[in-house]
Amino acid sequence: ASQQQLQQQQQQQEWEQEQEQLCALDALSRGPHQRLDVLVFLAVPEIARWASCSRATRTDLDGAVGELLWNTAYDNTCRIQAPASEHIRALVARPCGDAAVGCRVAVYSAERNAYLCGLVQAFNEQTNAYLVRYDEPPVAGGEVETWETERRRDEAARFNPLLWTQNRFRFFTMPADGDKDPGQNPGSALCQMRFDSWAKELKHTLTNMPTRRAVTIKDHVDEVLFAVFSPCGLQLATCSRDRTTCIFRLDDTRPPERTARFVHHSTALRAQWWPEFPHRLLTVSTGGPLETPSAEVWDTVAGDCLLKVASWPFDIYAAAVRWPQRTSGDWALLAGGGRASLRGGAQELRIHPLPCVRGSGEPCQTEAEQRPTELPSVRLRLPLSRSSNYCHCPEPAPAGRFQGTVAALTGTCSMQCDVVVLFELPDVTEWPQEVVQVTLRTHELPSRAVLSIRWTPDGSLLLANTRPRLGSQSPGQRAAPPLSTAIELLVLDAETLTTLSTHGGHYAFTPSEAPFILHADAWAGNDLVASGGEDHCVHVW
């Protein structure tokens, strides 16, 4: 009997030790209240590490806790200014009483140790209780509508005073004012998601979010002014003030390998890969103050310069376009004009033929494959405003709905750009010798200076990096309006040019007379956008 008693005591001690270890490893798994209070303070990349801690933390990415978690992260990283924000106005001021009617909430259930989702139907001032209509009955076979109070009254709260102050209610959204989606509950944040659950939305973001530095490239000997991946993601081009452009082959299993190095007569400002497969060709824009600007086309495999033409001013970046646009013809080069490209109240752009490039985007291998070289370059005439400013940084839209449209920047004063310009490449079927007039469509942003403009990969949105202006001074020709050090990235609808969202948090310090160009980019189906800054950081939203 004593031996049996000793064995039972030993088993009891082993069980207690095992329970202590489990509690130590998963101390926050006793209830979603404590875990959620921790998760809302984590950065988005750290949530994935949290999920891998234990079985309990992995469940936080599913169900009501996951929905609350991702809704909070989404609200903390976006400032929506479009009408769509009515659906995703997360808690700024806690709605109380009748103001909470119509809000979608998650209510903690001590019996099930989980958050249950529902919609507030009514408020009782006498009992300070809310009538919640749950998505599913809280109790099997019970009613879906239940009166709930905010304070915890369960057994655990009776013995733990710390739980008295914990609110059982978590709010997803404020009530929606009309424009309801019949397929979603009123006020539900689900109507703003790309996927059907917060867990999938979170996984999508974490999968596409850069979290570590992969490699540092030190092949240049002066400032690197631009870097761009090929559309296939297998190559990288970098432009530098050392007057070279370097091409690197990318491989996850080894460091980047430099496959080509192009030497220019002026500073390499910007490069653009050929829009269509096989992405073998590259356009490079060179120039700068007191330098001769040019637009060049390079073969990245053979290392040959296929075309080099003058392109004034130097911030007219070269790009490959189909010409004529109406027939989706052969490839051509869009660039600036000659030295006298700015005169007579107009600006001249030119479209140069590329006889040595096939329609597939590959260089011709023999002279027989080349097109006639006597084709003239097409001269486009863009009308200018009275401010003597011109169209900067033209960028053609990618293939798709807006193919043939070019976005650019200009301004109401000569030292800053505050106008977004869109114009269509002329709808002709040949290479005309006379000057072709172009009509500009403008969208003015009078309260800010626009630093850069860029199409998203699918061409549905425009990314405009801006710096807000200080005070109410109207822009003039002699003095540049003072600028804030804050940078705001605007996401514009490409069709209406309305601002869909604003993203801030990064800063610039260059003077208002010559604000530095800061580029932006988007990926993952336009769900993620990024911008450089003069604060030594790249910011991702």
- Structural class call reads alpha+beta
Strand-residue proportion: 25-35%
Q: Give the overall average pLDDT.
A: 80
Shape: elongated
The Cα radius of gyration reads: 30 Å
How many individual β-strands?
31
Distance between termini?
A: 68 Å
Low-confidence stretches: 24-30, 78-93, 174-191
Strand count, sense and barrel status of the largest sheet are:
6 strands, mixed
- The count of helical stretches stands at 7
Helix content: 10-25%
Pick out its properties.
single chain; alpha+beta; 541 residues; elongated; 5-stranded antiparallel sheet
Outline the secondary-structure elements:
Blueprint: H1 2-25, H2 32-39, H3 44-51, H4 55-58, H5 63-77, E1 79-80, E2 104-109, E3 114-124, E4 129-134, E5 145-148, H6 155-159, E6 169-173, H7 198-208, E7 224-229, E8 235-240, E9 244-251, E10 254-263, E11 268-273, E12 281-286, E13 294-299, E14 304-310, E15 319-323, E16 330-336, E17 342-343, E18 346-353, E19 378-383, E20 392-396, E21 405-410, E22 419-424, E23 436-437, E24 440-444, E25 448-455, E26 461-468, E27 486-493, E28 499-507, E29 520-523, E30 528-532, E31 538-540
Write a concise synopsis of the structure shown.
The chain has seven helices and 31 strands.
